[in-house]
Amino acid sequence: MASKRAIAGIVLALISGVIALEGGYVNDPLDPGGETNKGITKRVAVAKGYTGPMRTIPHDVVVSIYYDDYLVAPGYEPLIAIDAAVTEELFDTTVNMGPARPGRWFQQSINAQCGARLAVDGRVGPATIAAYSACQRRVGAAPLCVAMLDRLDGAQRAEYDRLVRARPTLKRFHRGWATHRIGNVDRAKCRAAT
C-alpha cells in the first residue's frame, strides 16, 4: 500500500502528465470542447467559478479542477493506492471524454474479467474498488492491470470510431486521439501494482 506522500506524488504526476499532453490555449471552432487551455474547457472553468480569460487561467486553478473533477469526483482517488497505472488510464480518459464512459468501461471490465456483478453506472465507489481488489487477489495485480489497460483502451478506441462515424467533422481529431490517448499508459507500470 502506497503512503500518503507517495500518493500525493502520483497525483501530481498524473495531473502534470495530462497538462503536458493537453498543451496550451486552443479555440478550434470544430472542437466540441470549444475554448480550452491546458485541457480545461471554458465551460468547465466557468462552472468552477473561474471568470478570467482562458488564455491566462492560473495553473493552480487548472490543477484544482483536475484533482476535484477528474480524479476525486469520479471516485478514482482510492484506486491510486491499489493500481496507479489503471488510475492513470481512467484519469486521462476522463479528461479526454468526460467521467461517465470511463467509469462504466471500468465496471464492465471488472465484470467481464473477474465475474463480478457490479452495477454499471459509471460511479466508481467502494463496491467497484472492492471488486477490483478482490479480482487482483484472484488474478494477480500485474496481469489484471495489463488486462484492464487493454480493455479500457479498446473501449476508448471503439468510442472514438463511433464518434467519428456519428460526426464526420471530428475525423480531423481522430489520429491525435488515437496516437496520444490509446496505449499511452506504459504496461511496464503494471509491475508496480504487485
TrEMBL record:
Residues 102-180 form the Peptidoglycan binding domain. This is Putative peptidoglycan domain protein. InterPro entries: Lysozyme-like_dom_sf, Peptidoglycan-bd_3, TtsA-like_GH18_dom. The lineage of its organism: Bacteria, Pseudomonadati, Pseudomonadota, Alphaproteobacteria, Sphingomonadales. It comes from Sphingomonas mucosissima. It comes from the Bacteria. SUPFAM superfamilies: Lysozyme-like. Residues 18-98 form the TtsA-like Glycoside hydrolase family domain. Pfam families: Glyco_hydro_108, PG_binding_3.
